[in-house]
Amino acid sequence: MGLDISERVRSVPPSGIRKFFELAEERDDVISLGVGEPDFSAPWAARDAAIDSLERGRTSYTSNRGLLELRRAISGHVDDRYDLDYDADEEILVTTGVSEAVDATLRALVDPGDTVAVVEPAYISYVPGVVFAGGEPLRVPTREADEFKLTYEALERAGAADADLLMLCYPNNPTGAVMTGEELGPVAEFCREHDVGVLSDEIYAELQYENDHTSIATLPGMRERTVVFNGFSKAYAMTGLRLGYAMAPPEVTTAINRVHQYGMLSAPTTAQYAALEALRSCDDEVGTMVDEYDRRRRFVLSRFDEMGVDCFRARGAFYVFPEVPTDESAEAFAEGLLREEGVAMVPGDAFGDGGEGHLRVSYATGLDDLREAMRRFEAYISD
Ligand code: PLP
């Protein structure tokens, strides 16, 4: 028929999360704990900077790699916060969200048939991203018994020694798991031993409640084999402004920039001005949001505990990942909860096989709604 859909696209099913949003829209009293985005707006100083840039008529493209001033601010920020040392000129690329950074990186580094190990449960875009880039995804399941942390043994068991790249995300979406520097050590060792490159999505780095964030790129011998992703969507509540960045050695950012410059040209200019101001003056607002997420996290964990629902102690991002408290599949439980009580949670298997038997519960929702959602959840399992 002329416009034949590619085999790659046909092989990727639509997102399991979308289906739940559609179901949730069928009624108007639904409390959604399904969304993965902040319920706050971006700090005013960042919004004002965006408005100011428009008033000044700054509506042109920026350089492909992003405003140099912004890259310098990012370079200073990641050094202060995570001890990461990346050069603003050559090692940082500003992108249209972490989404574009991951996509462009996969297309820049993956040859047809290359294997990309994806740690599961995983953010829903990674496996499709690998497929669209022509690679072969290799699923590396993590287990609740390990608090969903990645271990040397899990990599070995999954056959990741033959992988070209390893895609990981800590703090994790969907489980809320985090990994300390010590825990990342054996993962780094595995990657060095087997010459595996690492793509580390650290978009939730600021949202850690019991430890400071450690980037795998700071471990010995890892900087040269790692691409680090971060952005403004989560910590700065800027999802709609679409801004992220990739950091890697010069030849790697040059390759990613090749894909970016032809595919995207440059990241949104208005958002770049907002991001610059966010880095300059919004630490207090970020701190206030993080404190609020932590309060909610502790509330949700303690409510599940009171109900006798097994839920491992998530320490990062804004998700907890309880076990389904009945004999049903995660999907059947989530559908029943939505239809009968009007509470939306995402079945864990939407994030890969390792998520079956769990629910992703987002606490990026006000405490009043969380209280009511937990009350309804309790009513549902007591019936
Ligand atoms: N990475 C992870 C782990 C996410 O959870 C999300 C959004 O939910 C993204 C990337 C997308 O980030 P961005 O809004 O910067 O494209």
Automatic annotation (TrEMBL):
<feature type="domain" description="Aminotransferase class I/classII large">
    <location>
        <begin position="29"/>
        <end position="376"/>
    </location>
</feature>
<dbReference type="GO" id="GO:0006520">
    <property type="term" value="P:amino acid metabolic process"/>
</dbReference>
<keyword id="KW-0808">Transferase</keyword>
<dbReference type="InterPro" id="IPR004838">
    <property type="entry name" value="NHTrfase_class1_PyrdxlP-BS"/>
</dbReference>
<comment type="subunit">
    <text>Homodimer.</text>
</comment>
<keyword id="KW-0663">Pyridoxal phosphate</keyword>
<dbReference type="GO" id="GO:0008483">
    <property type="term" value="F:transaminase activity"/>
</dbReference>
<dbReference type="InterPro" id="IPR015424">
    <property type="entry name" value="PyrdxlP-dep_Trfase"/>
</dbReference>
<comment type="similarity">
    <text>Belongs to the class-I pyridoxal-phosphate-dependent aminotransferase family.</text>
</comment>
<dbReference type="Pfam" id="PF00155">
    <property type="entry name" value="Aminotran_1_2"/>
</dbReference>
<dbReference type="GO" id="GO:0030170">
    <property type="term" value="F:pyridoxal phosphate binding"/>
</dbReference>
<dbReference type="InterPro" id="IPR015422">
    <property type="entry name" value="PyrdxlP-dep_Trfase_small"/>
</dbReference>
<protein>
    <recommendedName>
        <fullName>Aminotransferase</fullName>
        <ecNumber>2.6.1.-</ecNumber>
    </recommendedName>
</protein>
<dbReference type="InterPro" id="IPR050596">
    <property type="entry name" value="AspAT/PAT-like"/>
</dbReference>
<keyword id="KW-0032">Aminotransferase</keyword>
<dbReference type="InterPro" id="IPR004839">
    <property type="entry name" value="Aminotransferase_I/II_large"/>
</dbReference>
<dbReference type="InterPro" id="IPR015421">
    <property type="entry name" value="PyrdxlP-dep_Trfase_major"/>
</dbReference>
